[in-house]
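Incident review: delayed structure delivery

Summary: a single-chain prediction request sat in the queue longer than the usual turnaround. Root cause was a stuck worker, restarted by the on-call engineer. No data loss occurred. The affected request and its eventual output are reproduced below so the record is complete for anyone auditing the incident later.

Affected input:
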Amino acid sequence: MTKPPRTPSKPLLGDVDAPIRSKARRRRDPAQPQLLLDPMPARIEPCLALLKPRPPKGPQWTYEVKWDGYRLALHIEPTSVRILTRGGHDWTERFPAILAEARRLPVSTAILDGEAVVLDAQGRSDFGMLQQSLGGRGGKRSSRDAIFMAFDLLYFDGHDLTGTELSSRRHLLEGLVPPDREEAIRLSEEIEADGEQLLRIACEHDLEGIIAKRMDTPYRSGRLGDWVKIKCVQSDGFVIVGYEKSAASFGGIGRLLLAARKGKELIYVGGVGTGFNERSASELREQMDELIIGKPAVDTGRKRDAVFVRPKLVAEIEYRAWTHDRKLRHASYKGLREAADGAEIYAFE
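Output delivered after worker restart:
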């Protein structure tokens, strides 16, 4: 199902079999006009995927696996590499394997868009494993297990590619990060399949979902619909407003109490009591105990043995559906989102 690298009629990288080079291989003809180089931007706001219930159809759409990790941008320059989060925070030192591999890429200047992930034994991205490798939310540990799944190229050898259509950006990216690469920087491969069929296969393999992208559009920051995400299981961020104690559960957490946004207010959406392990529950309990308040920030109804906390922590929660009174059904805790990763709280329209 995976597409082979394209072989264009007019190669964009010179000879197809030649290595990618950043310097001219022969002296420039003085009669040839000087090509202007675009200044390298300090940061590019990411293109975000719009959630849709079903995959779009049409030849202009291409598909990829939806990765469950931290959105990153790799800024490669001749003497330095920066790794920036979705929110623009510098996490260069937190991904040493990705940093070392970025320095080895055969390019002088580039900005790669992608996702840092940790893969489980079946090759699926696992957000909880990534968080634990980084020391949990607010932790300062470096992750040597994380790899970077590259899915776009925004700047390349002195040229801004954001105004170029995705098909051309992907061609250049595949030359820089080949599809068979198994290092700390890998290609998020395009998959040639019917969108509905691909979604069904992704769900059967317990993947989070798929991403559909328009091949004929430039790179536009924000959530404008050029990229669409279709999930197998709903997964969103909810703010923790407290927890119910339990002596029989990991970390003494029987159930987290969660809230979503409605306008400028927070409203209670139920709780979650599964998805924890001993380590994640212990780390979560430690952070919540620093935020304890006497009265709940939202009306949670009568709760037995409840401890209320300031609404500062955002939990990523998987769930199957909503009840008629706007409570989560079949919810499971995945981990805490970082503010640096754009920890968005689910909002009712």
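Verification: The first helix runs from residue 96 to 104.
Action items: add queue-age alerting; document worker restart procedure.
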